[in-house]
Structures are given as structure tokens and as C-alpha cells.
């Protein structure tokens, strides 16, 4: 109850002073850091016809001429009002109120901690609760990630066979203890039986191939069907990657149930099934969603976070860092990912806690050791040669390919998802998943590079050829006898195996490109990191082998003659695969710094940061030439989430008066006069309109602005005044001034509502450029601002008006971008 006392404070009128007095760790709003989002029925309720919600928020003030913070919001109330401080689904939080409430709670704890040992213990618990919640989040994220990795590997191998000696072993684990494996066929052992061997009793021949083919398709369809049914029945929010919605939630939007326990449980189970089904998707993006679910659930154990939505978002920022940490084994990359890609309010304190959460999650994952290689990283590589300056040319070309692929994928995937939303096909998500899974399984099985798990494919493409590698990509001809040989010098003429692998990789590249477009957005958990990296790794390996053969056959060319000695090892095809993977992922997501850190943590290739940086930056430039939106921003816009992207520039020359409402032919702006209304008239305005707030003016003739009052505050004030004050009647005069107006002696008792009035609403003049208005909304997280001319009220601009205007300027349907 104590934490809710602030609701009765007039913080709207002293918000600026509160901000100025905040400590560095408790800064209220970081200028460009907070974006506040509004649902259709909330932000447009200020002007147009949706029902007012009980979750309406207080207006933000610019704090001019503020009275002291002791002014009570409802000065006649003595106890908190039930329901105040909670938010409806698809509404935004009020950052100002939440941060003020947290500071008030903090002051009360500090003032009481010297009273007794118990109060001092409570203050210590409160101070350490932030570290406790991120520790629990990191522990749960690491444990769930390890469980998902182990289960996905086992179920993926289940499509090909089973281990008779221990059913819970996957293919690799089954053959670890076998003494009958050979170097050339290290993946074959008596303990592992394919389905053809179990059912038909034969391992070779057309019959066994057809049986294995059939069982592969059967298991793929079974896993996909089970995944989509669980999502549809138990947790519809468990589909997709979750990152677009998490970005929106972290910007202040409320989506009830998206981070709940049912979503966590179903997402964990169906993620394993979806990955094992062989669909062109990854588990890395959904792991961020899983970690954020853990953070949200654990935050309810601590009142400091459960009762404060703004503080809860600090935990979610740390949880997203832990998610990337366990997804890639990249704790530093996870922190930078949270900072660069998903968070909008990221104070220094959150940076430290994100770092700690990522550390704990990575430690737990390393303890579980799901990859069986005693390493945290997913694709550990060791290259024996440095990169040379002339190789920047193919690295930059790979960056160009990544940018082109990213731009093409975003446009194609968004077009398909929009078609899915607008046609009858979208009504049958189960059928769509089954159809895509069937096509994927039928086409993938004949090609060994598409049949295997995508993570294993990327690992093989990253790996350098050496004497211990038995991959077809390493079948070079020996110069001595022309047969297959493995020596320490890979710069040899490619053998038939390499050329065969090149053709298979080209087919795999086309297959992955097509299927990823149709897979991302299905009603199953689907990440985009691994498929994008696989496409880039395939393209990079092809380019790397081509460069290697050029260096061998044309070592006297100027480029190679300068850097490559005859017979020297100077081209590493695996490095090209790594650079291509980073370029394609950068082209799709438009990440830069965090992506480079993730990739070098993922592979351990610290020496190759410069090629990675060159490729990632090139892919971003090329992708931005076709559109500045990454895939996550594009899906946010497709779903119509009210989200002002801070990365998007507004370059149009419109003015505030062209965007404000009311416009021509619109009904006049609904306003309240400061001392002319009765309770009955005020209730009539509230009942006849659905606006979420009303400007208060001196009189209809002057139109001089006094302040701004929210509908919810007015309703609460009237209801509580009737209960607690005698003499309040329908014909009682309502006034927002300091002193009551002169009334006849027989008039009923007037109702003073000045305490709920925001005396300093944010205003702009009608000649203010919209470029400045948009910047103000982004950096201050405004809900609305009023438009004046020479002090007279003209209209109002809401966040929804800005989103509509930006869509109109981009030649889009203004109504199509709003939330549905």
C-alpha cells in the first residue's frame, strides 16, 4: 500500500524537478532512450471514438512553474484507490509515474531503515533484490537452454535412427563408447541402428533408402504437427521468434500473457519439436523470449519489480542479454545485443545487471555442457593462417551479398506474411505448418547438407580442412599419387568430392533461401539467426573454395604473387564461411557491433574481427540502400504495434498544424471550461465521448489553455467525492481554479478538481516543424502534446497521429499500420 501512496501526489506538476534531482542510477528518462507506445484504443481516445479504459495513464508534464511535490493528486482522498496503477492489455505504461513511484518507495525504505534491525534488513533485501532476480533469471535461462539443446539434438537424430544401447543417446554420444568405429566412418557403430536396419534388417540398398526416407518424413511431420497444435491450443503467443514483441514490450507496451508461465512452458517444448522437425528455423531467437519469460516470472517474487512496470523492464533487458548469452555462448555479445537491438531504456545499472545475468547463464550452460566439447561456444574454430589484405575484396563482396539477401528476404517475407494475414490461407495455421514441413522434409533428405541439423552444417562449413577432417569438402587430390589425401597443406587441386560438395551446397543455398522465406512467421517457435547464418556460410564456403583454387592455379597473378608463396597455405575457406554468415545475419537484422562480437565469441576467431567488421558494415550499407528497416522492425510495423523507431529519420517539412486534430470537417475539440460546468454536464461529456483526456480552458470565448485532465482521473474524483463528501449533487459546480467561483447562497456544494489537473501539459505552437515534434515524442516518450497559437488552444497531437502521418508520408495506408 505504501508504494501506491504516490498516486495521490501531484507529480505531473513537478516531474521536471523530480528528474533533475534523481541520482544517476535513478534517472527518470534517458533522452533518446525511452519510447512510450500506445494501443489504438488508448492513444486515440484523446480524440476519437473508442471507449475509455480503466488503464489510462497520467499525462506527462514539462514541469514549468511546478508546485511542491506535497500537493495531493486527490486531496480529499485518504487511501489508495483500487485499480489505480495497473494497466489494461495492449496499453502503454506511464514511465513518469512508475519511476516516481519507485523513488517514493526508495525514500520510505531509507527513512525507516534506522528505526529497527528488521527495517534495516528489509532495506538490504530491497537493495539486493535486483541482483537476486537477475541471478535467478540467469540460472533458469542457462538450465532451460541446456535442456533445449540436448533434447533438440536427440530428437533431430531420432529422425534417422535410434541408439539401442541407450535410447537417450543421440548419434554422436551413442558411438563415443564404441570400439568398432573407424576413422573414415567414425559415425557408424553397431550400437546405432537406422530405421531401415530396425524395420527391414538391411542397411544398404534402395529398399533401405526408401524406408529411411519415409521415416525421416514421418518424424518431421509428427514433430511439426505436435508443435503447432500445442501452440494453437495452449499458448498462441509461443509462436515466432518473439524478438519484435519483446522490443515493443521493452518500449513500454503491455501484452498480457506474452511472458507468462504457459507461454514459457509451451515455447520450451515446441521449440525442441520445431527444431527437430527440420524446418528452416533456429532456436536462438526464441531463447531470448524464453529468457524474458523467466525474468518476468521471477520479477513477481519481488514487490520492487512486480508492482512497477518500469522496473520490470530493467529485468527484461537483463533477461534478453542472458537469452543471447545461452543461445550463442556469447555473454558480452548478449549484453551488446540487449543494448543495441531490443532495449530503449538502458541505464548503467541495467548494463551491470545484464552483464551479471549473461555471466550466470553462460556459467550454467557451460556446467551442463550440452555440446559435449567442454566449450561454451557453439562453433569453435582454429584457423592456422592469418588473413591477407587482398582478401578484403571477397569479404566485402560477401557483405554485398549479405545486404542484398537481407533486403530481398525482408521484402519477400513481409509480403508473404501480409498475404497470410489477408487471405483465407492464414486461417489454417496447422495445415500451413504441415505443408511447409512436408515440402522441407521431402526436398531436404536427398541432400546431405540439408538433411543434417543446421547448426551441424554451419559447424562443418566453418571448420578448416586438416588431417582429422573426413568431410567431403576436404577431399583434395594429392600431388603425389592423385588419390584422396589429407595433409597439412590444403592448397591443392580440388578432387571430385569437393566439386560434388560444391554442387550440393549450391542446391542447399537455393533451398535454404526459399524455405526460410516461407518458414519465418509460421505458428511455431521460429528463430532467424541460424538459417541466415547457414545461407551466408554456404555462400562464403563456395567463395572460399573458389578463391583457394584460383590461388592454386593462378599463383602467378599479381594479387596472389604478392601474398601467397608457391605451395603456401594462404586461403582458408572456413574463414569465408564465417564472414558470409555474419554478413547475411547483419543484412537481415541490421545489427553491427553486437553481431561482430557475437560471431567472434561464437567461433573464438578474435584475430578475424576486421574482416567481420568490413563484411557486416557493407551488408548494412547495402541493405539500408533498399530500406532502413531490419526484419524485426518490419514485423513490428506489419503487426501494427504503436512503436516509434528511434533509428528512423523524419525528413519531411510538414508543420504541427497539418497533423493536429481536429482537422477541417472534424467535430470541434472536446474541452472543459475551468469553472462553468456542473457535475451533470461533466458526466454528460464523459458519457457522450470516448476521449481519454480533455484540455481545460478558461472559457469557450478565450480558448486560453489552463491544463489537461484525464478522463480516468475525473471519473475517480467524482465517484470518491460522492462517497466521502456530503452535498455533492448533479448540479454541483465543478471548478479547476484555485478558488471557488462566486455562487448563489442556495447552490449545492461545489466540487474542486484542481488537484487532478496537469497544469503544465507539453505544448507546441502550430508552426513547430513535425521533425521536432517527432523527435520530442521519441526522446521524451510523450503520450500527447497540445497545439497552441498565441496561447490559444488549437488542437492536439497524439502518438497515433504521428504514426499515421509518417505512414502517409511514406505512401502507405495510414490505417493499415495501426494495431490489430
Write a brief caption for the model.
With 820 residues, the protein is mainly α.
- Extract low-pLDDT stretches: 1-84, 480-490
Q: What's the helical proportion of residues? A: 40-55%
Q: How would a crystallographer describe the biggest sheet?
A: 3 strands, mixed
> Any guess at the CATH architecture of the domain at 389-447 and 455-462 and 505-524 and 532-639?
Orthogonal Bundle
Q: Strand order of the main beta sheet, please?
A: 5-7-8
Global morphology: elongated
Oligomer: single chain
CATH fourth-tier homologous superfamily of the domain at 389-447 and 455-462 and 505-524 and 532-639? Clc chloride channel
How would you describe the overall organization of this protein?
Pfam families: CBS (PF00571), Voltage_CLC (PF00654). The chain crosses the membrane at residues 128-148, 216-238, 258-279, 286-303, 315-339, 388-410, 430-449, 501-522, 534-555, 575-600. By secondary structure, the protein is mainly alpha-helical. Among the domains are: 134-153 and 239-368, Clc chloride channel (Orthogonal Bundle), CATH 1.10.3080.10; 389-447 and 455-462 and 505-524 and 532-639, Clc chloride channel (Orthogonal Bundle); 656-810, Roll (CBS-domain). Helix content is 52%, strand content 6%. The chain has 30 helices and 13 strands. The strands form 5 sheets. A 3-stranded mixed sheet has the order 5-7-8. Strands 6-9-10 form a 3-stranded mixed sheet. β3 (476-477) and β4 form a beta hairpin. α20 runs antiparallel to α22. The longest helix is centred in the first third of the chain and has 42 residues, at 117-158. The radius of gyration is 31 Å and the shape is elongated. Residues 1-84 and 480-490 have low confidence and may be disordered.
Amino acid at each position: 500500500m505504501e508504494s501506491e501512496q504516490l498516486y495521490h501526489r501531484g507529480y505531473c506538476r513537478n516531474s521536471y524537478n523530480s528528474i533533475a534531482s534523481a541520482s544517476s542510477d535513478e534517472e527518470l528518462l534517458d533522452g533518446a532512450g525511452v519510447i512510450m507506445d500506445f494501443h489504438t484504443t488508448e492513444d486515440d481516445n484523446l480524440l476519437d471514438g473508442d471507449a475509455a479504459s480503466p488503464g489510462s495513464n497520467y499525462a506527462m508534464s514539462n514541469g514549468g512553474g511546478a508546485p511542491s511535490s506535497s500537493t495531493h493528486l486527490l486531496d480529499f482522498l485518504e487511501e489508495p484507490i483500487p485499480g489505480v496503477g495497473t494497466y489494461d492489455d495492449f496499453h502503454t505504461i506511464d514511465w513518469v509515474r512508475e519511476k516516481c513511484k519507485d523513488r517514493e518507495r526508495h525514500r520510505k525504505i531509507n527513512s525507516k531503515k534506522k528505526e529497527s534491525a528488521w527495517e534495516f534488513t528489509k532495506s538490504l533485501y530491497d537493495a539486493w533484490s535486483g541482483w537476486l532476480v537477475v541471478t535467478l533469471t540467469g540460472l533458469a535461462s542457462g538450465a532451460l537452454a541446456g535442456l533445449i539443446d540436448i533434447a533438440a539434438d536427440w530428437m533431430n537424430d531420432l529422425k534417422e535412427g535410434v541408439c539401442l544401447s541407450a535410447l537417450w543417446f543421440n548419434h554422436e554420444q551413442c558411438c563415443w563408447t564404441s570400439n568398432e568405429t573407424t576413422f573414415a566412418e567414425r559415425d557408424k557403430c553397431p550400437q546405432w541402428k537406422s530405421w531401415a536396419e530396425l524395420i527391414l534388417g538391411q542397411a544398404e540398398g534402395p529398399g533401405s533408402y526408401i524406408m529411411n526416407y519415409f521415416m525421416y518424413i514421418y518424424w518431421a511431420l509428427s514433430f511439426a504437427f505436435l508443435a503447432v497444435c500445442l501452440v494453437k491450443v495452449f499458448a498462441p503467443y509461443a509462436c515466432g521468434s518473439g524478438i519484435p514483441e519483446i522490443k515493443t514490450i521493452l518500449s513500454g507496451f503491455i501484452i498480457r500473457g506474452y511472458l507468462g508461465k504457459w507461454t514459457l512452458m509451451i515455447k520450451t517444448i515446441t521449440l525442441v519439436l520445431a527444431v527437430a522437425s527440420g524446418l528452416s528455423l533456429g532456436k536462438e531467437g526464441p531463447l531470448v523470449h524464453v529468457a524474458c519469460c523467466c525474468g518476468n516470472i521471477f520479477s513477481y517474487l519481488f514487490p520492487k519489480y512486480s508492482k512497477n512496470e518500469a522496473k520490470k523492464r530493467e529485468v527484461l533487458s537483463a533477461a534478453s542479454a542472458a537469452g543471447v548469452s545461452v543461445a550463442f555462448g556469447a555473454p558480452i555479445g548478449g549484453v551488446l545485443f540487449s543494448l543495441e537491438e531490443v532495449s530503449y531504456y538502458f541505464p548503467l545499472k541495467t548494463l551491470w545487471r545484464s552483464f551479471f545475468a549473461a555471466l550466470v547463464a553462460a556459467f550454467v550452460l557451460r556446467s551442463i555442457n550440452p555440446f559435449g566439447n567442454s566449450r561454451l561456444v557453439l562453433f569453435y574454430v582454429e584457423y592456422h593462417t592469418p588473413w591477407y589484405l587482398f582478401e578484403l575484396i571477397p569479404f566485402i563482396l560477401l557483405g554485398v551479398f549479405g545486404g542484398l539477401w537481407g533486403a530481398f528476404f525482408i521484402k519477400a517475407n513481409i509480403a508473404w506474411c501480409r498475404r497470410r494475414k489477408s487471405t483465407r490461407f492464414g486461417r489454417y495455421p496447422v495445415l500451413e505448418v504441415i505443408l511447409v514441413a512436408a515440402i522441407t522434409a521431402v526436398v531436404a533428405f536427398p541432400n546431405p547438407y540439408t538433411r543434417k541439423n543446421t547448426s551441424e552444417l554451419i559447424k562443418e562449413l566453418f571448420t578448416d580442412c586438416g588431417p582429422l577432417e573426413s568431410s567431403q569438402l576436404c577431399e583434395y587430390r594429392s600431388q603425389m599419387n592423385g588419390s584422396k589425401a589429407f595433409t597439412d597443406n590444403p592448397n591443392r587441386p580440388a578432387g571430385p568430392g569437393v566439386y560434388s560438395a560444391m554442387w550440393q551446397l549450391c542446391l542447399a543455398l537455393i533451398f535454404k533461401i526459399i524455405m526460410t522465406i516461407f518458414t519465418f512467421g509460421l505458428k511455431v517457435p521460429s528463430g532467424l539467426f541460424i538459417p541466415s547464418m547457414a545461407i551466408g556460410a554456404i555462400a562464403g564456403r563456395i567463395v572460399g573454395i573458389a578463391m583457394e583454387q584460383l590461388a592454386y592455379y593462378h599463383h602467378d597473378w599479381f594479387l596472389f604473387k604478392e601474398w601467397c608463396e608457391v605451395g603456401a597455405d594462404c586461403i582458408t575457406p572456413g574463414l569465408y564461411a564465417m564472414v558470409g554468415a555474419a554478413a547475411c545475419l547483419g543484412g537481415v537484422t541490421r545489427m553491427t557491433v553486437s553481431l561482430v562480437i557475437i560471431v567472434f565469441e561464437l567461433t573464438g576467431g578474435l584475430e578475424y574481427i576486421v574482416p567481420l567488421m568490413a563484411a557486416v558494415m557493407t551488408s548494412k550499407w547495402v541493405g539500408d540502400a533498399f530500406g532502413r528497416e531490419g526484419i524485426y522492425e518490419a514485423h513490428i510495423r506489419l503487426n501494427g504495434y504503436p512503436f516509434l523507431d528511434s533509428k528512423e529519420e523524419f525528413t519531411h517539412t510538414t508543420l504541427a498544424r497539418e497533423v493536429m486534430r481536429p482537422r477541417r470537417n472534424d467535430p470541434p475539440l472536446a474541452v472543459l471550461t475551468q469553472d462553468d460546468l456542473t457535475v451533470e454536464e461533466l458526466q454528460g461529456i464523459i458519457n457522450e465521448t470516448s476521449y481519454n483526456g480533455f484540455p481545460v480552458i478558461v472559457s469557450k470565448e478565450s480558448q486560453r489553455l489552463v491544463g489537461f485532465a484525464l478522463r480516468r482521473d475525473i471519473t475517480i474524483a467524482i465517484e470518491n467525492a460522492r462517497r466521502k463528501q456530503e452535498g455533492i449533487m448533479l448540479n454541483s459546480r465543478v471548478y479547476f481554479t484555485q478558488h471557488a467561483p462566486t455562487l448563489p447562497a442556495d447552490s449545492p456544494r461545489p466540487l474542486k478538481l484542481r488537484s487532478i489537473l496537469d497544469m503544465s501539459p507539453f505544448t507546441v505552437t502550430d508552426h513547430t516543424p513535425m521533425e521536432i515534434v517527432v523527435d520530442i515524442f521519441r526522446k521524451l516518450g510523450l503520450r500527447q502534446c497540445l497545439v497552441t497559437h498565441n496561447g490559444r488552444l488549437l488542437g492536439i497531437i497524439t502518438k497515433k497521429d504521428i504514426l499515421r502521418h509518417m505512414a502517409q508520408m511514406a505512401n502507405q495506408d495510414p490505417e493499415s499500420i495501426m494495431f490489430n
